[in-house]
Amino acid sequence: MTHTIAWSGGGIFFTAYHQGRYLAKKGHHVTLACISRKSRFRISESISEGVKIVEFPDLLWGRARSGWDIWDSLLRVARFIGNDFDIVHGYESRPVVSLPGLLLSKTGHRPLFFTWADWFGRGGKGQGRGHIMGKLTAPIETFFENNIYPKADYCIAMGEPLAERARSLGIPKEKIGVLLHGCDPERMRPMPRDEARRSLPGLSEETIALGYLGVLRPENAELLFQSFRRIASRMNRPCRLILIGNTKLNWRPYVPYAYSNEIQETGWLSYKEINNYLSGCDLLLLPLRKERWTDNVWPSKINDYLSVGRPIVSTKIKVLEPIFSKYNIGKLCADNPVEFADSCLSLLHDPTLQKTMSVNARFLAEGELSWKTIVSVLEQHYLRILRNRS
Q: What is the pTM assigned to this prediction?
């Protein structure tokens, strides 16, 4: 179960969906509950790559349409109470996930798993972004995070920082596992840079192209654009910053007019088009203002960066340090424009290191961080808990 809208409500829907489709490939029957894209009253079903997707109506609107509706919760219980599931797996702890999950687990004596992927409670994402909704719900989020995850038979943390938080709640270490968001190396494939550029408008072979994928938060926009200005001013070749996909932000107030022509925004793209744009970039960027929650939450866009095999420059955050250290896939730096730009510039002047990092990134995407590998580990957790229950 997830608290997000089907296909458009955030990364955790795709975490659940990709895990589900790989479990389906292994012969398991998977049902994924989520919030309907449009309906407020009707439940709808569809099948995608072996996963039955059940979309539940939600009476709320805007930011509140994200896992708070008791009507949605009751409908999930009514729909699933008599089903013969072997396992109940909730992704995050919001009410539309945790309340039906707990009830279905207890009434059917089924093992209960929770995946903890984000930090919503006090000091977390909602408050950090200054949203009114986040500030209002922070005490409720904190209550659910502190009281729901300890009730799981097994808690899966998306990164070691959240595993540390789980242990601090008294969850025994043998009931905690770490599984990150996965890469999709079958759909996202590296292409030679110049070949990719031939399919992209107005991007010549001599242009330095820096890419940023997906939603751009206001708190990170200033860091991104100030870093780009510094890079562009110090290169003796044309530079372009490409905002790939839907940024959900009017970025122009952050950019001086003199640099606005060097920034390209693509808008919504297909998977193939995203693949081409990412592959056509020299570096892929992940600028994050370092806050308590960003330090602990896995940024899922990095999985697409890894899949196309391009060097990455990112703010140094706790959750990313292990893979950057182990695999040498890019550079981590402080969250200020000088150091971020200097890290990019040092890589741009070192094509040999770029090539090494590209190979390492793809190796990681095909191996430890592939959905195939991650789901094999998840399946073993399921089977072990089921054996212990029998």
A: 0.93
